[in-house]
Amino acid sequence: MESHFVIWPNRNLFLKSGLTDLLKSKFCNHKFDEQIFVDFSIYNIKLFTNNEWIIFLEKTAMHIILIYDRYMEALANYWMSVSGKITKKVSIRDSYRFLSLNYAREFNHPGRKKLTEVELQVLDLYLAGNSVKEISHRLYTNKKRVYGLLYSLEKKLCIRMKAILVW
């Protein structure tokens, strides 16, 4: 019997093709039934700045596996610590390593970058097109703190905030 899996959001044809080939390869020794592979890449960042996506996927009663790129590691670590339905997080650089059943949750290791809840709120508001002044009013803080949080986000995401707006 062939293993079936779901990729969400299903926009990245290269991920779908690569994941299909990888799971059908001789290196895959177990089934991935009832798994949702989440394309947790920087191109989809606007989907992952609030909890609506996780609530939507938790309704499916399937296990969630995040496939993240280098920019999204801190955000993946945040969601991994918040949701119990996320069973694994896999970097796109890990290739065959995630196919092992022994590949465990890694989000509590010291030194791992992880966003805070306030940083996530700032990111959500910033990507929605709010100015620093509007963000400071909504979060009841001053503009200097918002600039500091945006700088912290740039360091944790390894990308300039203005570059994210392009996607």
From TrEMBL:
One biological process term in Gene Ontology: regulation of DNA-templated transcription
GO molecular function: DNA binding
Superkingdom of this protein's organism: Bacteria
Chain coiled-coil ranges: none
InterPro entries: Sig_transdc_resp-reg_C-effctor, WH-like_DNA-bd_sf
Protein name per UniProt: Regulatory LuxR family protein
Species of the source: Enterobacillus tribolii
Lineage, highest ranks first: Bacteria, Pseudomonadati, Pseudomonadota, Gammaproteobacteria, Enterobacterales
